[in-house]
Amino acid sequence: MRLLAFCEAAADFRTATSLVDRVLRDEGPTWIADVVDPYPEAVREWLNDPHGKSFFDIHRLTEYTKQLGNMRVPQGYFDGKPGAPGALMARTAFHIVREMLKRGPSAGRLETVDAVLIVWDMDDQGDGRRQGLAQARAEASRWAPFRIVLGCPDPMREAWVLAGFEPASDEERARLDELRRELGFSPCEEAHRLDAKDEQAKRSAKRVVRLLTGDDAAREERCWTEPPMDRLRARGAGSGLGAFLDEVKNDLVPLFRFQTRQ
User: Which terminus of the chain has a smaller tally of CB atoms within 10 A, N or C?
Assistant: First the structure.
């Protein structure tokens, strides 16, 4: 399965792709569980951007379109309605993939793409951005030869990290208890409420993640690789994590339905 991701940062890509692997392992054919960890490329391949980056950077869409020469992206409405926030961005992303597929490998472009992911922080525009992404997906679904999966961390990726945090020591348990008292709610069970933009603010998801994990990248990664999937879905209902996991299950796992282990 050949996948391509549009993300804002490398951390978003790492988190989303690890979660994709977990869903494929848990929900896909039994042979995937045996193969995906030791030989991940035998199950799925993430396609690089034109610069060799492991993901396509949402902030560089204009640069990608210029590199494709005379590529044009429609600027009009979506089913007769103005585009909500992010609709044009997502439309541009889908058209970039379409153009690269059209030009094919002989032009140094893409041969096949089975699915395209967009992972984009909702920040303080959750309702609008989700609507905009949905508008662009509905439009692209009429012509796209690839599946489309949307990841909408609300308000940001760190909320997904917190959904999987479980204290692993007395020190971590004390930190969590202190934050729960300070915030007035559990930052792991209601991470979507951590909506401050200022990273030093009390309700900053980034601040809370730093405090709970000791700013340790390896400890942070355990938050999405170790917890049971049902816990991630339940705690991530408000932050968009549950919806993302369900989209991966419903749209990517079926791609393996008629495949068998080679």
Answer: C
d(CA 158, CA 178): 19
β-sheet bridge partners, residue 148: 116
Are 74 and 109 in the same domain? yes
Average pLDDT rounded to a whole number, residues 143-160 = 98
pLDDT score, position 258: 52
Q: Would you state the structure tokens that stand for residue 65, as one six-digit string? A: 């379109």
Based on its alpha-carbon atoms, the radius of gyration of the chain, rounded to whole angstroms, reads: 19
Tell me 106's DSSP state.
G
What is the residue range of 197's domain?
Answer: 159-219
> Do residue 11 and residue 87 come from a single domain?
yes
Please report where in the chains the tokens 């992010």 appear, as a residue: 86
* pLDDT surpasses 80 at 153: yes
How many whole angstroms from its chain centre is CA 81?
26
* Ramachandran area for residue 11 (φ above 0: left; ψ -120 to 50: alpha; else beta): alpha
Q: Are residues 41 and 76 in the same domain?
A: yes
First to last CA, the chain: 14
pLDDT at 13 over 70: yes
Bridge partner residues of 46 (DSSP): 3
d(CA 54, CA 48): 5
Q: Which two tokens stand for residue 181?
A: 């008292």
Q: What's 141's DSSP letter? A: T
Amino acid of residue 106: S
**Nearest of 54, 38, 19, 94 to residue 249 by alpha carbon:** 19
* Cis? peptide before 155, omega within 30° of 0: yes
Contact 191, 182 (CB under 8 A): no
For residue 144, give the DSSP letter.
Answer: -
